[in-house]
């Protein structure tokens, strides 16, 4: 179903991430995605970060020109939506570990909430490049997810003595059979 819908609400989630909420009657479940576009622009596949009845939402991180444009959407603006597509998450297990990082957490939040509503024990392990970019921390805590905050620092391996000093990881060398 391809539809133009009005934006009901925008929520700034982190300094670079916004959630856009809209009415869209198509049934959807945690784990599915929709195609979203601004009139006159290309479609972008976006995971549903909210799928409560007709109220849907996508959470968008500014990564390129199209997503930066979407971040400027205001309530009342019109967007195109098509879908949902993809498989839904299996929320039947009694114990679930949700592991995600950055904008990838958007699709996991409704799954964690849905599983918790069904009585599952849900623990969330989330990552972000900076503490202020950690997405849905309060939302997951509010859903009853187990939570422990630990700050870690990523360190680059020293490449000063390496003949390859690009700073990138390289695959292990392979021996050629003689």
Automatic annotation (TrEMBL):
Q: Which residues form the FAD-binding FR-type domain?
A: 1-91
**What GO molecular function annotations does the UniProt record carry, in alphabetical order?**
oxidoreductase activity
Q: Where is the composition biased (Low complexity)?
A: 155-178
Q: Which parts of this chain are annotated as the region Disordered?
A: 152-178
Q: Which residues cross the membrane?
A: none
List the protein's name: Dihydroorotate dehydrogenase electron transfer subunit
What organism does the record attribute this protein to?
mine drainage metagenome
């Amino acid at each position: 179903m391809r539809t133009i819908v009005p934006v009901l609400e925008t929520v700034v989630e982190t300094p670079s991430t916004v959630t856009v909420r809209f009415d869209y009657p198509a049934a959807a479940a945690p784990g599915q995605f929709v195609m979203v576009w601004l009139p006159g622009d290309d479609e972008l596949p976006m995971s549903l970060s909210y799928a409560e009845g007709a109220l849907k939402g996508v959470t968008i991180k500014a990564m390129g020109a199209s997503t930066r444009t979407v971040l400027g959407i205001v309530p009342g603006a019109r967007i195109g939506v098509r879908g949902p597509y993809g498989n839904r998450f299996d929320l039947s297990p009694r114990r679930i570990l949700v592991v995600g990082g950055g904008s990838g957490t958007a699709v996991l939040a409704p799954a964690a909430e849905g599983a918790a509503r069904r009585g599952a024990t849900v623990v969330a392990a989330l990552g972000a490049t900076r503490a202020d970019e950690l997405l849905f921390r309060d939302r997951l805590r509010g859903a009853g997810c187990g939570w422990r905050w630990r700050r870690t620092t990523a360190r680059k391996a020293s490449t000063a003595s390496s003949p390859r000093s690009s700073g990138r990881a390289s695959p292990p060398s392979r021996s050629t059979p003689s």
